[in-house]
Amino acid sequence: MTAQHTWQDPWRLMLVVNAAVMIGVFLHKITLPPYVPYIHLLVDYHFGFTKRALIGALVALFTAKVPVWLVFALGGTAWLATSALFIALFRRTFGFSAETTPLFVFMAGSPFFLKNFMHTLGHFDIYGCALSICLLLVPARSILFVLLAALISMVLILIHHIHVLMYVPTIAVIVLLRYYLVAGLTPKNIATGLAALLGLGVLFLAAQFYGTMPIAEAEFVHHLQERMADPSRTELLSYSYIWYQPLAKEIEDTWARMPSNLLGVPVFALLIWLHTPLWRYMREQIRALASDRHQRLVIASLAIVSLGYFIMFLIVFDYSRWISNWAVCMFLILHAIKTLPQTKPVLPIAAEDRKTTFFGWIITLIPRVGIVRPF
Length: 375
Prior knowledge:
375 residues, mainly alpha
């Protein structure tokens, strides 16, 4: 591919612009204090089983003092790994060609996806995405695939229990589409699946209701300060209350912010609408499925995943993150849908369509969606 051809092809030029935008988002991100991501690296299992503590416990195995730069180092590594995994997944599912470039732009260049993961660098969302992509890449030929999915889901719940609504439903859909629809429902498969769901449910309840700190907050904060490379930066511990806040309080805070946060809904709707060419392509992929039963199961799966995000919308107020991760889950499920038998090939997104090109440029130039409110 020559440089001249890149400048003449708007879709390849969009990829170049997206890369520049991502670099800009990164340079801006490293100037911001990592309040929530940093404290997650400090919390471990020092006081017993604790919610949101797995990442911090793993960090504690390698260092007693946690520098702030480690947030960006770990977050950047996770981002690079996720990007590489997605590129590998896209190459295997759709391949790279002039015909598939618009589809790649609408996914990889979406402000919901890699650009927003760059803005939320250090947060736990990206781990759900990365591990879901791994499940889409590995073979799904035996019951071991179900057990691997269960193990991955447990790891995500230990990282943060909200993954039970954020990425675990998408993982379940991937298992359904890639394994159960191929292997069928046997007593062994059913028993394994039900056991996995039961184990995940128990782990979630333990994290949600028994993972709070059993000691006074002052003692907890003192332990965190001992793990800090620079204990004087006490402002980075301002979110220690998270490990004491019950679910009822989270819901109360969310509904107190609801009137102002709902003002962002039209913006989210606009961002989703800008991805219309992608949603149409996904619709056609579903319509092309060879089995009506498969079509119904896919539609039901999309509804269940969306319901999980709607529940999160009601109980935790990081709306921009939830909307972004919902879109990412749709992208990933599309890859799983593509593996099912189809009656006919689906036409690619029209690269020459002026409206589609306009939408592609808009989503390319939007640097991110945000964490709570749009942008």
